[in-house]
Write a structure and sequence with these properties.
With about 300 residues, the chain is an alpha+beta fold. The protein has 2 domains: about 5-170, no CATH class; about 175-285, 2-Layer Sandwich (60s Ribosomal Protein L30, Chain: A). The protein contains 8 helices and 5 strands. It has a 5-stranded mixed sheet with strand order 1-2-5-3-4. α1 (about 5-30) crosses α3 and α4 runs parallel beside α6 (about 145-165). The radius of gyration is 26 Å and the shape is elongated. The model is unreliable at about 5-20 and about 290-298 (pLDDT under 50).
Length: about 300
């Protein structure tokens, strides 16, 4: 008669064998899958396929290979499943946590601001490189592999920043800038520059926390005192234009620097439209944090 401990050990051995077999099936299915890499879900799945193939064929890590193969297959059925791992769900040594915390916040804001159809390739690389980084960090011993995943992630985020002309900070914020210009001695932006201000209203950012820092400038025509007042008036005019066109609520801060920081150096008294400008920096923050989304059984 078998002892209870022997039966329990046999049960868990059978369970592990069954799970491994299921993972191997998913790996095999993903390897043979015809994937349209021009779509967002296809781009994500293809990046997972590269990772899965490495884990299965080179590292012989069938558990994680099967997990990410299942995740890739789910993404092909449902693009909304293309979500990065939450590193907190993994058993990761503290030495890797700080970098992953920063990266998770940066990826989160990138995914919120950049539509998949506009950044498919680099978003796919960012998500899958982050997951690679998480998986390798949990294993914790292949430092060169951890570094390679981290570098791939940072490169993909850098491409997205350049593509969308935004800066994603380590604090998990995004910063976008725009500049409008003014006619001589006028506080209002030029008519053609109102279009730029209005274009921000169509970006769908009204559910985010936004702060806009607006800095007015003048050229070197006019007195210092006049230009100081004019630069403040220009900043206020841009704030009012934002309020009249952007949905949602925002906080503002303004500065008027007069003629003290020209974009183009000129002699005193010289009018130059390039210096008659107002610069706005928009800082975007996501709160609260999105929930962890389970995409496969691990």
């Amino acid at each position: 008669m078998n002892s209870p401990s022997l039966l329990k050990a046999t049960f868990f051995l059978g369970l592990i064998t069954a799970l491994t077999a299921c993972g191997a099936y998913d790996v095999a299915e993903l390897k043979e899958k015809t994937i349209d890499t021009t779509s967002y879900s296809g781009a994500v799945a293809e990046e997972y396929r590269k990772f899965v193939t490495s884990e299965a064929d080179q590292m012989m890590d069938w558990q994680d290979a099967g997990y990410f193969a299942a995740k890739a297959l789910k993404v092909l059925d449902d693009p909304a499943a293309a979500q990065p791992e939450n590193y907190k769900d993994w058993n990761i040594d503290q030495q890797f946590v700080d970098d992953l915390e920063v990266a998770q916040g940066r990826l989160r804001i990138a995914m919120r601001l950049i539509p998949p159809e506009e950044g498919a390739v680099n978003l796919a690389k960012a998500i899958t490189s982050f997951d690679c980084w998480v998986e390798q960090a949990e294993e914790g011993w292949q430092i060169d592999h951890i570094a390679a995943c981290q570098t791939s992630f940072n490169d993909a985020l850098g491409e997205l920043e350049q593509q969308k002309d935004i800066k994603i900070t380590d604090a998990g914020e995004a910063k976008a800038k725009f500049v409008v210009f003014h006619e001589l001695d006028q506080p209002q932006p030029r008519a053609e520059d109102f279009v730029l201000i209005q274009s921000f209203a169509s970006k769908g950012w009204d559910d985010l926390q936004l702060h806009v820092h607006v800095v007015g400038h003048t050229d070197r025509s006019g007195t210092d005192e006049h230009n100081k007042k004019l630069s403040v008036s220009r900043a206020l005019a841009v704030v009012n234009a934002i309020k009249s066109t952007w949905p949602g609520e925002y906080t503002f801060s303004i500065e008027g620097l007069g003629e003290t920081t020209p974009a183009v150096a000129t002699s005193d008294g010289v009018p130059d439209v390039r210096n008659r400008r107002t610069e706005a920096e928009v800082t975007l923050t996501i709160k609260p944090e999105y929930p962890s989304i389970e995409t496969a059984v691990r």
